[in-house]
What does this fold into?
Amino acid sequence: MAILEVKNIHKSFGKEQVLKGIDLSLEKGEVLAIIGSSGSGKTTLLRCINFLERADKGEICVNSQVIFDAQREKKYTEAEIRRSRLNFGLVFQQFNLFPQYTVHRNLTLAAEMLEAKGLKGEDKKRVLSEIASRADKLLEQVGLSEKKGAYPVELSGGQQQRVAIARALMLSPQILCFDEPTSALDPELTGEVLRVIENLRGDDRTMIVVTHEMEFARKVATRVIFMADGVIEEEGDPEEVFTNPKSEKLRSFLSSSLEKF
Ligand SMILES: Nc1ncnc2c1ncn2[C@@H]1O[C@H](COP(=O)(O)OP(=O)(O)O)[C@@H](O)[C@H]1O
Ligand SMILES: [Mg+2]
It folds into this structure.
């Protein structure tokens, strides 16, 4: 059964049609890499899936439940949107950590608001301690246990992004989405972030990774989608997409990406 289904998503900004009918479906445990030139609509697609934008047309389902239907007449309430967003963990290009909080607090904040709200006494203490140890485990998983008391400004970009990944995992999202997670980093820091993402794959996590790291996409993804001008121009198994591209647009995209190295 598909964990995520995106059906016929359209999105325009003013007169510009950015997404022109995107369909995709993801099974649990799949790692989908989305590649494509700048401006092809990758970020807009992720933002539509995550309710940061409203698609003009189309439908989004998680575990066969419709979480978004552009045709629905009733407006989505804030509470509905928040609930839908819980299906997704998000990691952006800019790490967006809270600068005023420690690394550990960056992880626990949202979970406390959600899970400890309204609790008192022993119940509250138990939940808070469970949240704190969950944060400890995730920091260990991304190799940053010793930085739990540090502030974001004291970390390298790569470390900040690893914290952002751990934070995105705190609420155990069904689907983890990355939007060019390494493109704001110096080249020598991308490896540590890509390795953390690669290691998450083993836990049967479903992930969507928008990336311009072609080697990474080839190695880690179970499927690759190439977007061009608001449509899925080509998709398939990574080996197939990278070694035997069918469309002219993908061929020229791949050769220009290779030139950059
Ligand atoms: N909020 C917005 N308002 C107007 N135009 C936008 C907005 N967001 C994206 N666009 C336009 O949509 C197109 C696709 O952008 P984007 O989804 O960011 O592409 P990508 O992530 O593939 O580089 C671009 O032409 C961009 O200028
Ligand atoms: Mg983008």
